[in-house]
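Sanity check

After download, print the first record. It should look like this:
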Amino acid sequence: MPKTVLTYGTFDLFHIGHLNVLKRLRGLGDRLIVGVSTDEFNAVKGKKPVVPFEQRIEIVRSIKYVDEAIPEENWAQKRLDIQRYGVDVFGIGDDWRGKFDDLGDSVEVVYLPRTEGISTTEMKRVLSAFDERHVEELKRTLDSISQIVKELS
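Expected structure tokens:
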């Protein structure tokens, strides 16, 4: 019987740490479903992504380890998605350790180690030194990268 793995994240400024966690999660099962937090849900969480939701989900959808990417719109969705998709394993980075233990009554909960030396938070801290013109240039570059990924998939 196929084993389904589910995870969630913002996946802003997609980097090797994101790719590593998706690859490891896919290795835990036969199917990986990834919930990508919408801009509206990120606002509720106090986050403001650099890359817009539609681009972030398109990047995640194009990753070969990902079988399906869905919008994440609220906290309660996790339990509903576990039932909806017949999930066997809920996995997430260990920076969330203990936060989703309550899901253990219906799935195996796995916390994976983060990739050393890389984090979106640190990237944003470094980028905060840029003025508005530099940020707009970065956004244009990220849009170009997103377009290249779309054309290659």
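If your output differs, re-run the checksum step. Summary of this record's structure: Residues 132-152 form the longest helix (21 residues).
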